[in-house]
Write a structure and sequence with these properties.
The chain is of the alpha/beta class. It has two domains: 136 residues, 3-Layer(aba) Sandwich (Cytidine Deaminase, domain 2); 218 residues, 3-Layer(aba) Sandwich (Dihydrofolate Reductase, subunit A). The protein has twelve helices and 16 strands. The strands form three sheets. A nine-stranded mixed β-sheet has the order 11-10-9-8-12-6-13-16-15, sandwiched between helices. The chain has a five-stranded mixed β-sheet with strand order 2-1-3-4-5, sandwiched between helices. The chain has a two-stranded antiparallel ribbon with strand order 7-14. α3 runs parallel beside α4. The longest helix is centred in the N-terminal third of the chain and has 12 residues. It is globular. It starts with a helix and ends in a 7-residue tail after the last strand. The site of zinc ion has 5 residues, from loops.
Length: 370
């Protein structure tokens, strides 16, 4: 096995922590000695031992002279919830460490490599760097900006509609696409919808048919107009739900009732039209609720305001091979004015998803007009 193949194994292990480690990164570690894998580990959940410690324990030996440790993220250099991994690796006398990417956490950021090299350990960096950056894109964004990573997911027709003119939308995409959506929900801290989507679609916003845990649910309802009994505000999982509203509504009796029912009611800044200010709300969600990644699931008004605010990092379109003609356009309420100001994305991948196409795009930073 070459370095890339072993790093891929570490990356696969890291994914087992999906949904459980946030706001920490997803980290996997593999120990190789005499061409054999002798230990595997991954960061299982927030506060739990780091991947390197798990792999060392899994190998079940005391000295690692001649052995190489592979990990997708630079070993940490500071005493956090757990002691520094770099010092432990040095103590265990590893000969070599292969790293996918430097830890962007300013507390680490190169200091882990320094500890290793000062202890005489050979360090190789940047193996499968792009793949490693991708696996930890939520963590990278959050630790370097304090803002959550924002994904938008929409199921639309060939001609870019998420619902018919009368509001019919169940179902545009097929079963495979809906399962993929659930798998994506299992990876993010929260899914987010607007109040119209809640009152029209009554979405469950949970993970049911695939493995993984359900994320928190964020609802943008600036003046708290949704009735308490409506799904997904009903009995189950109320503690998993956050409603963002304006400051006046936050001081209302209704907010109090929602709070007593276990729902988090978060006051967020609104603009002169009474609409939630997206960037400020994202900051509040990160600072007050610890949200580091969000998948926005609709509807058109929410998609448009997120696009308008320029905060969409990643766009997932499930495109069904149907034409609607008159319908509700995915970003129908966005007016960019000119082609030059259109939002621009780079295609990351496109795959067949049952009868649909799953198109994944990331924000094109250079093409974006300020
Ligand atoms: C590693 N291996 O498996 C992880 C690392 O609060 P703590 O102690 O868990 O530290 C969290 C920080 O440690 C996190 O922000 C990131 O910089 C690093 N995560 N490092 O060597 C791991 N999960
Ligand atoms: Zn560590």
């Amino acid at each position: 096995m070459n370095d890339e193949q072993i790093m891929l194994e570490a990356l696969k292990l890291s994914l087992r922590g999906s949904g459980y480690v946030n706001p920490n990164p997803r980290v996997g570690a593999v120990i190789v000695s005499d061409g054999e894998i002798i230990g595997r580990g991954w960061h299982r959940e927030f506060g739990a031992p780091h991947a390197e410690v798990e792999a060392i324990n899994n190998a079940g030996r005391d000295s690692f002279e001649g052995a190489t440790l592979f990990t997708n993220l630079e070993p940490c250099s500071f005493e956090g919830k757990t002691p520094p991994c770099a010092s432990l690796i040095a103590e265990k006398k590893f000969s070599k460490v292969v790293i996918g990417m430097i830890d962007p956490n300013p507390e680490v950021s190169g200091k882990g490599v320094e500890i290793l090299e000062e202890s005489g350990i050979e360090v190789v960096q940047g193996v499968l760097e792009d793949e490693c950056q991708w696996v930890n894109r939520f963590f990278v964004k959050f630790i370097s900006t304090g803002l959550p990573y924002v994904m938008v997911k929409a199921a639309q027709s060939l001609d870019g509609c998420i619902a018919t003119a009368r509001g019919e939308s169940k179902w545009i995409s097929g079963e495979e696409s809906r399962n993929r959506t659930q798998a994506m929900r299992a990876e993010v801290d929260a899914v987010l919808v607007g109040k119209h989507t809640v009152s029209i679609d009554r979405p469950g916003l949970t993970v049911r048919d695939v493995k993984g845990r359900s994320p928190k649910r964020i609802i943008f309802d600036s003046n708290l107009s949704l009735p308490l009994g409506i799904s997904p505000l009903e009995e189950s999982d109320r503690s998993n739900t956050i409603i963002c509203c304006n400051k006046v509504s936050h001081n209302s009796r209704k907010a109090e009732t929602l709070g007593v029912a276990g729902i988090t009611v978060l006051p967020v800044p609104c603009n002169e039209n009474g609409k939630i200010e997206i960037s400020s709300a994202l900051l509040e969600l990160s600072e007050k609720c610890g949200i580091t990644s969000i998948m926005v699931e609709g509807g058109a008004e929410i998609f448009s305001s997120f696009a308008e605010a320029g905060v969409i990092d990643e766009l997932h379109l499930f495109i069904a091979p149907i034409v609607m003609g008159k319908g509700q356009s995915t970003f129908g309420q966005l007016d960019t004015g000119s082609l030059k100001s259109a939002l621009k994305y780079d295609i990351k991948s496109f795959t067949r998803s049952g009868d649909d196409i799953h198109l994944v795009m990331i924000r094109n930073e250079t093409g974006q007009e300020e």
